[in-house]
Structures are given as structure tokens and as C-alpha cells.
Design goal:
The chain is an alpha/beta fold and 298 residues long. It has 11 helices and 11 strands.
Length: 298
């Protein structure tokens, strides 16, 4: 039979479990979800025949409490690996592995390696970079490779990134190709220009007695956050992608996870986020085009 992997669609921590599964040589399917899709997907999945799967792995996603009532019936088949503080209500379940000091990929890596022995020098280096990138600790840990994989993910997109990084890890060689080196240099130049342009249109606001710098941007959320925190008198940065999600970033003792949770999100002390829901997008359209009528497909 085969396995099913369900993970997060948005970032390197979400797609890296796919790479790890490819390294096992197991037959598997995978589904990458945005946060707002999780509940509907599981409600549909749990009404299908799950006997075709040996294992169902859920990584880097917070499973709603209501879904666990159904998942408990499959606890011998399902294994959950996550690191979001907002998911701690499930910590006592024996098929759930939660640790806010790790990332989804590191937790899944430890488990998969214990079964399939996929570890080597390159996988260890890569996994540490994914952790530093996702927990936003790459700067303090001086992990340049974390910045590299972030850029490769932007350049390649999720599917090509999965294939290319799988080839690197399978061959135990993280050396960049000449093409990758050239593309990364060009991307750094584009990133610098993009960040400088976006911060010219930054809004300052006070939120929960803290000062924030907010920009609307579709990419470079970490780089924009670093620039804002380094160059402006703010406590945290807010990056709004109206077609995707909202990222909150801070340093030191500013806990943005608590702020994210107020608005239906979650994450970590210094790196959290919340979804831009369909209802929020509809409300935005009505603000942009006052008096418009949304046409709902039947």
C-alpha cells in the first residue's frame, strides 16, 4: 500500500516533508494545504476509504479540535507533527508530536529517519536550515544556508523546489549549481529593490499598545520584516499579502504569537501569522468598489 502526507503549502517547512518522503522511496501521495483549507479537507477525507493508506502523516498544520474527534478513530494510522503553540490542546494524544521549539520538518525528520535511515551530512544541514528559517533564528545563528533555501524556494516555486532539493539530498551534495548561484545573485538584487520600494509605503500603527510597521507585499516577508525592525522604531512588523496571509515578525521579548491568536492565527513568539480569509477578501472588495454586488456562483 501507500502513505498519505498532508502538509502546509506556503513555505519551506511545509514542502520539506515531501522531500523527506521521497528519500524513503515509499509509494505516497501528498496534499499541501493553506490553513483555511484544513478543516474542509479533513471532513472530506474522513468520509473516504482510508484503508488504502498504511500511514497518514500530518505535518506543520494545526488540526481543528473538532477534527480530532474523528481522527481518534484512526489513531493507529495517523501521526501528527507540529510546532504551533495554538495546537497545544492536542499534546496529550499519543499519535500527536508537538514541540514549539522545533519546526514541523525537524519533528518529521526524526521520526522518518528512525524508520528509513535517510540521514546524512546534507540532510542534517538542510533540516537545521529549515528550522532556522521557519523559527526566524537564522540571523542570530548565522545560518546563511537558511537564506539560500528561502531564495531557492522563491525562485523555483514549490514543485520544482521539491524536485531540485530532493536531488541535492539524494546525492548528499548541497553545492549550488552554477545556474543556481547566478539566479540567487539576481534574486538578491531584485529583493533589495523590492524591499526598498515597499518600505517607502509603510504604514505605522499602534496595536495592543505596541508600535508596528505594516507593508502590503506578496513576497520577501522575512527580508521586509528584518529591514523594518532594523531601520524603524517599531516593536514588530506586519506583512500583508491580501491574496495569501499576514505575517507578524518581532525580536526579543515581543510575543507576536499572542497577537496572531487574537485574530485567528498562531505560530511562534517571534514569527507568527494569520490567514486572509475569503470573507476578508470579500469585505476588501466592497471597500475598494463601494456599492458593488458580489455575484455568488450557484
Amino acid at each position: 500500500m501507500k502513505d498519505l502526507l498532508i502538509s502546509h503549502v506556503k513555505d519551506v517547512d511545509g514542502v520539506s516533508p515531501v522531500i523527506l518522503m521521497k528519500l524513503t522511496n515509499r509509494d505516497f501521495e501528498y496534499k499541501l494545504l493553506d490553513i483555511y483549507e484544513v478543516e474542509d479537507y479533513f471532513n472530506e477525507l474522513l468520509n473516504t476509504d482510508l484503508s488504502i493508506y498504511d500511514n497518514i502523516y500530518v505535518v506543520d498544520l494545526t488540526v481543528p479540535e473538532a477534527i480530532y474527534e474523528k481522527l481518534d478513530n484512526y489513531k493507529d494510522k495517523v501521526k501528527v507533527f507540529d510546532h504551533h503553540e495554538s495546537h497545544m490542546y492536542a499534546k496529550d494524544k499519543d499519535y500527536v508530536n508537538l514541540d514549539i521549539k522545533e519546526c514541523g520538518t525537524t519533528l518529521f525528520y526524526k521520526y522518518i529517519d528512525s524508520i528509513y535511515n535517510i540521514a546524512n551530512k546534507s540532510t542534517d544541514t538542510y533540516i537545521n536550515a529549515v528550522k532556522d528559517l521557519d523559527l526566524w533564528t537564522y540571523k542570530e545563528n548565522n545560518n546563511e544556508y537558511a537564506k539560500t533555501i528561502s531564495t531557492l524556494f522563491i525562485l523555483y516555486g514549490k514543485e520544482i523546489y521539491i524536485d531540485e532539493m530532493y536531488n541535492h539530498l539524494k546525492n548528499n551534495d548541497l553545492t549550488l549549481t552554477e545556474f543556481e548561484e547566478k539566479m540567487i545573485k539576481l534574486e538578491y538584487d531584485r529583493e533589495k529593490s523590492y524591499v526598498e520600494h515597499k518600505v517607502e509605503r509603510m504604514f505605522k500603527l499602534k496595536l495592543h499598545n505596541l508600535k508596528a510597521g505594516l507593508v502590503f507585499a506578496e513576497k520577501y516577508r522575512n527580508e521586509l520584516s528584518e529591514y523594518i525592525l532594523d531601520n524603524f522604531d517599531v516593536d514588530f512588523a506586519i506583512i500583508v499579502n491580501s491574496g495569501g496571509g499576514i505575517s507578524l515578525r518581532s525580536r526579543d521579548d515581543i510575543d507576536v504569537e499572542k497577537i496572531a491568536r487574537i485574530y485567528g492565527g498562531g505560530g511562534h513568539k517571534n514569527a507568527s501569522g494569520l490567514p486572509v480569509t475569503i470573507d476578508m477578501q470579500k469585505a476588501f472588495i466592497k471597500i475598494l468598489f463601494e456599492g458593488c454586488e458580489l455575484i455568488e456562483d450557484k
